[in-house]
Amino acid sequence: MNEHITELQKWQQLFEQEKASKQEIQKLLELKNTELLELTQLLENRVKEEVEKNAHKERILFQQSKMASMGEMISNIAHQWRQPLQAIGITTQKLQVLQWTQGTISDTDIDEMVTKVSAQLEFLSKTIDDFRNFFRPDKAKGFFHLDRCVKKTLSILDATLTNKGITLECDFTKIEIYNLENELTQVLINLIKNAIDILVEKNLEYKHIKISTYLQEEYACISILDNGGGVPKDIEEKIFEPYFTTKHQSQGTGLGLYMSHEIVHKHLNGILSLENMEYESDMIPCKGACFTIKLPLKN
Ligand SMILES: Nc1ncnc2c1ncn2[C@@H]1O[C@H](COP(=O)(O)OP(=O)(O)OP(=O)(O)O)[C@@H](O)[C@H]1O
Ligand SMILES: [Mg+2]
User: Fold this and answer.
1) What is the residue range of 66's domain?
2) In 3D, which of 104, 181, 122, 123 has the Cα closest to residue 148?
């Protein structure tokens, strides 16, 4: 009997020990669990921080690239303004000459001059309005005509193209889309600027840029083609990377295509691609880069 009791006590002891160690394990598990939760929280915070840092970097890059396009447009406006300012100067000088030679100015002369000066002033003020509108951030998507958007951008770049002896060819299909017009304008400026840069650098006798808008399946497309020789195969992969440039430091930051790619893909829901092309313009064999922006028709 006694034997049985000691056996039972032994079992009980063992059971108690087991219970104690189970409780310990439980406690340990709980401790590890809290540690794990803390670690997860820490990791989540770190990821959040990094994402915010990245977004901040992206905003700075975006701003930097916007400033660059603004600078580009200001220099274009300077070109665009030169001629009307000269015309206004000549008209007012004429007024003085008439006053000297005839001693008086007729009403018709005055009317004619006022009309001329007013037209020039209207043009100057329109350029500035266009410029202001370009850089006003789009608050929301809206309907607009693709061809009109390209024409507006070209109206500011026109004088620069003429100045550099570049032949511009346009082939527009009327297409209405729903998107962010100003952001698209920024991309257009970057792409046209690149085409101008390469043509000036290569200094060919015949300099040509062709801009087309057309429909392709469920996309509205804009392509910008130049005869600057194209993007060399060995850098084709890199051109959309930030800060990649083959230009001198004072001429390029290497942000244009990176930002354009970001805008088209992330903000406009589209695709930006490059294809080197061989073609003919005015019976002249040409070779160059063709950048295409594809924007969804249903957006
Ligand atoms: N139309 C083109 N033809 C040939 N090469 C081009 C063309 N467009 C871009 N590239 C090449 O791609 C590179 C990157 O272009 P990107 O617009 O990103 O920068 P960038 O023009 O050098 O400088 P930024 O645009 O910041 O002033 C250019 O330096 C050039 O070598
Ligand atoms: Mg560029």
Assistant:
1) 1-136
2) 181
